[in-house]
Amino acid sequence: MSAIGLGVPPIDQSLLPADIRTGSAQRKQTYEAALGFERSFIEELTKTMAATAQPSDDSSSTDDSGDGTSTDMGSDAATQSYMQMLPGTLADAMVANGGLGLARQLVPVEVTKS
Questions:
Q1: Is residue 96 part of a domain?
Q2: Is residue 22, in this structure, part of any structural domain at all?
Q3: What is the chain's percent helix, strand, coil content, to nearest 5?
Q4: What average pLDDT score do residues 66-84 get?
Q5: Dihedral sign from CA coordinates of 113, 32, 41, 18
Q6: How many CB atoms lie within 10 A of CB 37?
Q7: What's the Cα-to-Cα distance from 90 to each of 8, 31, 42, 83, 105, rounded to whole Å?
Q8: What is the pLDDT of residue 55?
Q9: 77 burial via Cβ count (<10 Å: 0-12, 13-18, 19+)
């Protein structure tokens, strides 16, 4: 499956459902779009989670030494950059390893008529 333009990381073909692996190009494209949606959904969830895990900006962010230095570990530029990249990286890793199953729910098994 191609990951061009959708922001979906490369997926191990063995992790795809059998009916998607053997299905038509249109079905594969639909499933890839569903995976793109699942990735975006996971990224938004993890962004929200990361935002709520940030330390508050109150006076408790200074240490007790009295010198006014901050003990807030999220204040430097490198940490902020890392925190901004984390949700997308986590979403990529989850989707590349099969995701949460949301894409499978969006693209159900195709029923063949006998």
A1: yes
A2: no
A3: 55, 0, 45
A4: 69
A5: positive
A6: 15
A7: 12, 20, 8, 11, 21
A8: 67
A9: exposed
Checking phi first, is residue 99 left (phi over 0); if not, alpha (psi -120 to 50) or beta?
A: left
- Residue 100 in any domain: the answer is yes
- Output the six-digit token pair for 82: 């890392």
Domain extent for 98: 36-53+78-105
Number of domains in the chain: 1
Q: What is the value of pTM for the model shown?
A: 0.70
Q: Is 99 exposed, middle or buried (0-12, 13-18, 19+ CB in 10 A)?
A: buried
Per-residue DSSP letter, 66? S
Residue 62 included in any domain: no
Q: What is the pLDDT of residue 107?
A: 92
Terminal CA-CA length for the chain: 29
Which residue in this structure is represented by tokens 């639909």?
A: 30
